[in-house]
């Protein structure tokens, strides 16, 4: 009985409930820690990579990237090179055409237009005095500062005599016959001086005109004004070479006075200004009537 009490006391003293619970908790905690740390404890350290291997890896990646992008780069270079080539050829062609047109224009003014008489010899009545007077008018001196007007009744032979005198003088005399339709003035002016109306022409512009039907805006400068500017450029070349201004003859100028009097005023003002500047001399040929009165 005493032994039973001792055992009970021993169990109660050595293995108290509190001690057992703490022991169990203590044993469980390391167990949990071991389970959580097992993956890290069992994993091996990352392999060591040498600098040479790292560089080689980067080079391989870069090479693959270049090979992958190479077709795109080549295509882009081809496109850029093609565009630059087309623009260069276009500019060179435009320069060449402009030089050819300017050379032809300068040669025309240098040699003169030399129009035909427009009448058969059997119907022509010679008037040598008038022809000689006109020839003197068509040969201005270096510092001449006035323009001329030739008037006469309709049917008296003004046009025929003017053409004959222009042809005989030749060099530096440009003859322009004013057409009955003002819309044709630009073409008539351009034809007289061999002006092609191709300022700054290019291959792309020609293709646009022929293939796509592209035309310039209707507000473009009138052809007769463009032809006038071209004549002035050639006139400056002629004067620099020959020491005297060129002559431009406007025949049948009376065709402008009724429907386009403002054009007549522009031509007269331009003739006065350029005579003052000794750039060119204008000669207006007209029937008697309203034109001389308007130009007074």
Task: Note the topology.
Layout (H helix, E strand, L loop, with lengths): L1 H13 L2 H26 L8 H61 L16 H10 L10 E5 L5 H12 L3 E5 L7 H8 L10 H8 L12 H20 L4 E5 L9 H16 L4 E7 L2 H5 L2
Parallel strand pairs: 1-4, 2-3, 3-4
The strand line-up of the biggest sheet is: 1-4-3-2
Radius of gyration: 50 Å
**What coarse outline follows from CA principal-axis ratios?**
elongated
**Beta strand %:** 5-15%
* Number of domain units: 2
Helix and strand sequence: HHHHEHEHHHEHEH
Low-confidence stretches: 1-43
Q: Major sheet, described briefly?
A: 4 strands, parallel
Structural class: alpha/beta
Assembly context of the chains: single chain
SS element count, helices:
10
The total count of strands amounts to 4
How confident is the prediction overall: mean pLDDT?
Answer: 77
CATH class category label of the largest domain: Alpha Beta
CATH topology assignment of the largest domain: Rossmann fold
Judging by the overall fold, what is the CATH architecture of the largest domain?
3-Layer(aba) Sandwich
Keywords: Membrane, Transmembrane, Transmembrane helix
Organism: Paraglomus brasilianum
InterPro entries: AAA_22 (IPR049945), P-loop_NTPase (IPR027417)
Transmembrane segments: 74-96
